[in-house]
Write a structure and sequence with these properties.
two-stranded antiparallel ribbon, about 20% helix, about 80 residues, 5 strands
Length: about 80
């Protein structure tokens, strides 16, 4: 069984994106593409797939900024 969440890292800006696996499959099956929400680049590298969002969040460091959770330090690999 596949995980509910999948992490992707952008090859251009090196930031991490966490998406719902089922939604990504539907998007790709309909002939569309998934891109980075930060810079718009289509080149994403797939990472960890898991059911526990806390496991993905522990891979990188995050903090709150004006009520939103943002990735700390640019997310360099």
């Amino acid at each position: 069984m596949e995980g509910y969440y999948t992490s992707y890292s952008c090859k251009y800006c090196n930031k991490e994106i966490i998406l719902i696996t089922e939604e990504v499959k539907r998007t790709l099956a309909s002939g569309k593409y998934v891109s980075c929400s930060h810079c718009g680049c289509k080149k994403l590298k797939s990472g960890i797939t898991t059911d526990d969002l806390r496991k993905l969040m522990s891979e990188r460091s995050y903090r709150r900024h004006n009520g939103a959770i943002v990735q700390k330090g640019g997310g360099s690999m």
